[in-house]
């Protein structure tokens, strides 16, 4: 459909230093993104300007330098560490004689490689279609020229409108299917809310170690690798926390600075797990020299998806890369855990995370003594299945004296199950 150059695996990276903080990107992050996409970097071109050039983004002299380097190295693609306009892409491809990709296009390509579930593939395709729809006009420049004479006028406008209609139809179809997925997720969330099961969602900058931590806490085998966006599809697992009970732990896609808006919109169903969470575990690669900036970027994205008000517990991960730092819990003035220092890779400090979760999610507990007749053996079995029996003995009359400890929620459910007749067996508070 497009008259664009084919992409490839050998790239020239282009990074420009801009004075405005909002436009500034990190060159090392671009190199990580390229590695994550499976691209081999043949050269890096850097430049500095007060503002981007409307024609090439970089200056015309720098554009010629890039084209010369492409020719020397036989590179098949040029990747910019910035967002390019369709016109800038077209002009750069014309002078470089190869495919040109911007930061957004590179991230979309990585997401396309990582998507494993049907839902993930749909979300990526939606983001790609939305991105490409703004660039359609550049794909048909060879058909838009109007030539003189009957039968010589190009069909460019007709073809362009046809493509736009096809893309609009496909987007509409994907949105319908994603809406169905979202409804299924909402049903699951409502069921957990009715059962009063708390949900803890792992969030953080990409490659902060969320999936490694998730696997350690859940004894799971979610794909984890030292690369950007290793996790794309959300995964939910149950864990047990003392004095809290069952907790749903959710592993989510990592965030990155200037996360493309098309991706945020496409992954709405996935990010809903973060919006509706009881608590967010904000995982930070504390050994990264840019970790403070990364925390700010994650906070910015959380605000953008309306999850900025969800309570957070910061997990300072990868302490094994720091000198003389041991696992610990930092608390606020009220004694509430606010930070936990761990190494997920080494398995250090994981018990402190569970302790902090217990304190942050702890329910109101009941501590009772029950005196049960021999006929209430079924109730005794139920109490054991809830892991609530702390002690028991049979007295001289044959009555079973049971000491229990459980959440108020579980006690109320049990009362309802036995038609609110359990009070007659309560022998007092312990």
TrEMBL record:
Q: Name one GO cellular component term.
A: cytoplasm
Keywords, ordered alphabetically: Cytoplasm, GTP-binding, Magnesium, Metal-binding, Nucleotide-binding
Recorded hits in InterPro entries, A to Z, give: EFG_III/V (IPR035647), G_HFLX_dom (IPR030394), GTP-bd (IPR006073), GTP-bd_M (IPR032305), GTPase_HflX (IPR016496), GTPase_HflX_N (IPR025121), GTPase_HflX_N_sf (IPR042108), P-loop_NTPase (IPR027417)
One molecular function GO term is: ribosome binding
- Segments spanning the bilayer are none
Endpoints of the signal sequence: none
| Domain (Hflx-type G): residue spans on this chain | 198-365
Q: How does it assemble?
A: Monomer. Associates with the 50S ribosomal subunit.
Q: Which family does it belong to?
A: Belongs to the TRAFAC class OBG-HflX-like GTPase superfamily. HflX GTPase family.
Q: What is this protein called?
A: GTPase HflX
Coding gene?
hflX
């Amino acid at each position: 459909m497009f008259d664009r150059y084919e992409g490839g695996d050998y790239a020239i990276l282009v990074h420009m230093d801009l004075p405005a903080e909002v436009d500034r990107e990190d060159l090392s992050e671009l190199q990580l993104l390229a590695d994550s996409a499976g691209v081999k970097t043949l050269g890096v071109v850097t430049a500095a300007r007060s503002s981007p050039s409307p024609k090439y983004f970089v200056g015309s002299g720098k554009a010629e330098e890039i084209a010369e380097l492409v020719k020397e190295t036989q590179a098949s693609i040029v990747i910019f560490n910035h967002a390019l306009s369709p016109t800038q892409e077209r002009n750069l491809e014309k002078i470089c004689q190869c495919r040109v990709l911007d930061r957004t296009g590179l991230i979309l390509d990585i997401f396309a490689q990582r998507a494993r579930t049907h839902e993930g593939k749909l979300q990526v395709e939606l983001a790609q279609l939305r991105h490409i729809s703004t660039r359609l006009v550049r794909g048909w420049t060879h058909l838009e020229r109007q030539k003189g004479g009957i039968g010589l006028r190009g069909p460019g406008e007709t073809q362009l409108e046809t493509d736009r209609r096809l893309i609009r139809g496909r987007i509409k179809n994907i949105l319908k299917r994603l809406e169905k997925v979202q409804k299924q997720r909402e049903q699951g969330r409502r069921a957990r809310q009715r059962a009063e099961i708390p949900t803890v969602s792992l969030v953080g900058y990409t490659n902060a170690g969320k999936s490694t931590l998730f696997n350690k806490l859940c004894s799971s085998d979610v794909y984890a690798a030292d690369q950007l966006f290793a996790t794309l599809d959300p995964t939910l697992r149950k864990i047990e926390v003392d004095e809290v009970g069952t907790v749903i732990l959710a592993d989510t896609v990592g965030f990155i600075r200037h996360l493309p808006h098309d991706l945020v919109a496409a992954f709405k169903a996935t990010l809903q797990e973060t919006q509706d969470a009881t608590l967010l575990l904000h995982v930070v690669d504390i050994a990264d020299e840019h970790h403070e900036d990364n925390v700010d970027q994650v906070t910015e994205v959380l605000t953008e998806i309306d999850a900025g008000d969800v309570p957070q517990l910061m997990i300072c991960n990868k302490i094994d890369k720091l000198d003389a730092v041991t696992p610990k819990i930092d608390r606020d003035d009220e004694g509430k855990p606010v930070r936990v220092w761990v190494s997920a890779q080494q398995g250090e400090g994981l018990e402190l995370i569970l302790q902090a979760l217990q304190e942050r999610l702890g329910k109101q507990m009941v501590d009772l003594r029950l005196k049960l007749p021999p006929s209430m053996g079924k109730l005794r079995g139920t109490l054991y299945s809830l892991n609530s029996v702390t002690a028991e003995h049979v007295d001289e009359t044959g009555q079973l004296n049971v000491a229990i400890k459980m959440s108020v929620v579980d006690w109320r459910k049990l009362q309802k199950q036995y038609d609110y007749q359990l009070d007659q067996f309560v022998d007092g508070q312990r």
